[in-house]
Design goal:
about 230 residues, alpha/beta, Glycerol-3-phosphate (1)-acyltransferase, about 40% helix, globular
């Protein structure tokens, strides 16, 4: 652990809670999007990280279930920047651990999210919350792997919950793939403040919510993964 990484940790904690507090009484979706984007840009700029978006022309305004791979804690920030030029606003599916986190909790609760509590025996409340969000005009953002991928594989197995969300809400599935290993990029940024990095995210082609095939297989083929 370097002195720079300690300073960055303190800075990120303060910034995250500052923006979490700012979001507390914000109800307008586009205003929430603006503030979330401002937060993402501020933190990534501090980390000397820029974002390159490939196939950005595929981003059409509408409602989607956006699915993404997940390797690092900065992945939501990368997606926020990828959607900057669109009017797409989504609620994140967030685990209970994030809701209760002293680091992320305030921001997650106020920034726009749907609580996923895997300890509950019934998931009806979760799906009802997702339905309400879609009815109000929001998209849904989810990491279908269910957790950060810490393996050497490009992806770990997708959980089935994302398909249920798509079907119940008739949401077309918009796949995105963060090609850069974001956990490694974050580690490099924390180790050396002078390192400048570019993270690449690719926008895929829409998948119909009624698709009966192997979505993970389609995702892997779409982005040329092994």
């Amino acid at each position: 652990m370097t002195l720079h990484s300690v300073k960055m940790g303190i800075y990120a904690l303060g910034l995250t809670n500052f923006y979490g507090f700012r979001l507390r009484n914000v109800t307008d979706p586009l205003e929430k999007k603006r503030i979330r984007l401002q937060y993402a840009e501020t933190l990534l700029e501090k980390l000397n990280i820029s974002v390159e978006v490939k196939n950005q022309e595929r981003l059409e305004n509408g409602q989607y279930l956006i699915i993404s791979n997940h390797r690092g804690i900065i992945d939501p920030l990368i997606l926020e920047l990828a959607l900057k030029e669109s009017s797409i606003f989504g609620l994140w599916i967030a685990k209970k651990e994030l809701y209760n986190s002293p680091f992320f909790g305030l921001f997650v609760r106020n920034g726009g999210s749907i609580l996923l509590d895997r300890e509950k025996s019934q998931m009806s409340g979760f799906f009802a919350d997702a339905k309400k969000a879609v009815t109000e005009g929001s998209s849904i953002f989810i990491f279908p792997e269910g957790t950060r991928n810490k393996s050497e594989a490009s992806l770990i197995e997708f959980k089935e919950g994302f398909r249920i969300i798509a079907l119940k809400n008739r949401l077309p599935i918009l796949p995105v793939f963060i090609r850069t290993h974001t956990n490694k990029a974050l580690g490099d940024a924390l180790n050396d403040k002078n390192v400048k990095q570019t993270i690449t995210i690719e926008i895929g082609e829409l998948i119909d919510y009624k698709e009966r095939g192997d979505i993970q297989g389609i995702y892997e083929e779409m982005f040329g993964l092994e």
